[in-house]
Amino acid sequence: MIDKERYKKIFGEDFEKVFQQKDFFWQVRANTLKATVENIEKRFKEKNYQIERIPWMKEGFWIKAEENLSKTIEHILGYFFIQNSSSMIPPMILDPKPGEIVLDLCASPGGKTTQMAAAMQNTGLVIANDITYKRLKALRGNLQRCGVLNSAVTKMFGENFWKTELKFSKILLDAPCTGTGTLNPRILQQTSLSSIRMLSKIQKRLLVSAGKCLEESGTLTYSTCSLEPEENEENIDFAVKELGMTTEKIEANFPFIPAITEWDGKRYDDSVANGVRVAPSEKTEGFFICRLTK
């Protein structure tokens, strides 16, 4: 188990607030491939849900509801996707356009994939990759439920995807991580420094592969739902110093704190500060996002 005191170095004196008991909000994104935002909002109001629009995502809602939204007919038909409001940010930062070809290197269960497909209006192509049949089953199920037609699903270790020799102008690397930003008690209990370091090595290998797949002047958005600098800033420092990539400043319309540039006696490249952290709160999971160019 990780000592929570380590997070004081990231969040400052208010770090205890990060771990306070939170009210539960359903967090959903209207799937514009099947329904309009206005129609979904109307349906929510007719069900007497307490709803609030997510400021940085025009398709997003925070909802208070007694019923399980995953069992509603609207969810089953793919009219909306249950997705944390922080998780909606990486595809928004990548900003895929209609007609483009995009790689989602670690795609399952598909929330970000379906979000990108909707932003692309079901045109172009999203290559959605993951590593096991179990994960691909969840991914394919969500793509089908949400009416995604512009995707191709592949099964390959992301570390080896560069061997396809395919090149992309935009890549999303939402890397497998400890998930400590979710504040799930089980995850916090089971996470150790050794597991953090192990995942950090995997994430670096994924960054190497993604970098080889990225076209010159292409854009890579790296993200995790981890609080750990070893999985976030350290990896961006690696991408800058070892892979020759450049970070880009994110014009954020969501609450964030800047990435840190020093941790555990290590000094990171100053440009790592262009990364952003979304702190866990009542309405957001902890997330790290950084946009890189080649």
State the order of secondary-structure elements, H for helix, E for strand: HHEHEEHEHEHEHEEHHEHEEEEEE
Supply the number of helical segments.
10
Number of strands: 15
Oligomer: single chain
**Sheet having the most strands:** 9 strands, mixed
- Count of distinct structural domains: 2
Taking all residues together, what is the mean pLDDT? Answer: 96
Coarse morphology: globular
Classify the beta-strand content into a percent band.
15-25%
Descriptors for this entry?
single chain; 294 residues; alpha/beta; Alpha-Beta Plaits; Rossmann fold; 2 domains; 9-stranded mixed sheet; 4-stranded antiparallel sheet; 10 helices; 29% helix; globular
What does this structure look like?
With 294 residues, the chain is an alpha/beta fold. It folds into 2 domains: 23-82, Alpha-Beta Plaits, CATH 3.30.70.1170; 84-293, Rossmann fold. Helices cover 29% and strands 23% of the residues. It has 10 helices and 15 strands. The chain has helices at residues 8-11, 15-18, 37-46, 73-76, 89-94, 111-119, 133-145, 185-190, 193-213, 233-241; strands spanning 26-30, 50-53, 60-64, 80-82, 101-104, 125-130, 151-155, 168-174, 214-224, 246-248, 257-258, 262-263, 266-267, 276-278, 287-293. The strands form 3 sheets. Strands 5, 6, 7, 8, 9, 10, 11, 14 and 15 form a 9-stranded mixed β-sheet that branches. Strand 2 (50-53) and strand 3 (60-64) form a beta hairpin. 45% of the residues are buried. The mean pLDDT is 96.
